[in-house]
Amino acid sequence: MSDREFGGNDDLSLPKATVQKIITEILATNDSESSITFARDARDLLIDCCVEFITLISSEANDIAEREAKKTIATEHIDKALKELGFPEYVREVLASAGEMKESLKVSFATYHGEKQIYFVREGGLWALT
């Protein structure tokens, strides 16, 4: 699904600071004199490309889920979408990242005074959201 199908929503974006951090980590070298910098307009273009890629994959995954009469897009729908759109080389890394995220953010539910609380287990600590 392209922006045209979303009604041209220009509000879709990614956090610039997060993208800049990823770019900086990728481009980081030990020799600071020869390190490459990334221009602001290049970063903004990269963000636009990422948003379009995410939109494309999620739209295809949504179509796959609908064909399977599912109401929730699951990991296997992303897997199929990547393959159908010609990105099979990304599947292994995406599934590995999904597995890592699932392990690092195990969620359990508990009842406290009749209210549902969500607990996240992260790096040995227990975090509660109310």
From TrEMBL:
**Where does the Transcription factor CBF/NF-Y/archaeal histone domain lie?**
13-82
MF (Gene Ontology): protein heterodimerization activity; RNA polymerase II general transcription initiation factor activity; TBP-class protein binding
A cellular component term from Gene Ontology for this protein is:
negative cofactor 2 complex
What are the UniProt keywords, alphabetically? Answer: Nucleus
Q: Name one Pfam family in it.
A: CBFD_NFYB_HMF
Record carries keyword DNA damage = no
Q: Which InterPro entries match?
A: CBFA_NFYB_domain, Histone-fold, Ncb2
Keyword Nucleus listed: yes
Q: Where in the cell is it found?
A: Nucleus
Could you list the residue ranges that cross the membrane? none
Reading the lineage from the top rank, the first entry is Eukaryota
* BP GO terms, sorted: negative regulation of transcription by RNA polymerase II; RNA polymerase II preinitiation complex assembly
- The UniProt entry lists the main location of this chain as nucleus
Q: What is the name attached to this protein's record?
A: Transcription factor CBF/NF-Y/archaeal histone domain-containing protein
- Organism expressing this protein natively: Alectoria fallacina
